[in-house]
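Hello forum,

I keep getting stuck at the same step: I have a sequence, I want structure tokens, and every attempt I make locally crashes halfway through. Rather than fight my setup again tonight, could one of you with a working pipeline run this one for me? It's a single chain of 237 residues.
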Amino acid sequence: AKAYGVPPAMNIFVESKNDIDHVLKNLSKIPHSQSYRKKDIPERYHYKNSERIGDILLVFEPGYEILRDPRYGGKKYDLSLTHGNHGYDNRHDSMKAIFYATGPQLKQNFTLDNSSTLHNVDLFGLMCLLLNIDKCPPSNGSLENIKSFFIEPSRVANMNRSLQQTTIDFVIYSIALLGIVLIAVMAIVWSAISLRSMFAIRNSSRNNPAKNTQHNQYEFSPINRQNLSSQVDHAQV
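Reply #2:
Ran it on my machine without issues. Output:
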């Protein structure tokens, strides 16, 4: 097995899928850690729908990490000293960041209450609003989480409407593009079938012209012969 990642969390790729259970069993013996199969990684991690994620994810509790070689930048760690790291479960308070902002569009002396939540991905929408970007592309962030920062919260509502219109336009353009592609594909397929049939008829004519000529001759049925004879006799009379 091969492991990649940072000390608090490692992606482990096994050589054979049959080895996963054995590797998991051995990893379970490591204290202050949790191991997950790729399919069992918690959804809140948003971390398993990629081929770059290992067969097993090993995550350590805050305050613990795994080191192949206790060195960084060519210098050996002094393990007797206290040091920090990042990359642990973001539910822990120690993993939360501090956000400061100031500007003419933002409230002064405002602090987000503890019941509210601000995620890193929410900052994308905040930057779009501060830079007056009207057509801000959709993201995984929530504009509602940054609404309380603004002196004029209505700007967030306007941005929401703009995002909704952008999404509708995208869907319409996608459907139109899909329709054009389908028409083009059908035209190509129909042209290919027509050309194939034309070449088949041409080759058949070249291979057996007598048969083709005979096939194209008009054959009278007994009724047609009788009607034709009656018309000829009447004309002679």
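The first helix runs from residue 20 to 27. If your local run keeps crashing, start a new thread with the error log.
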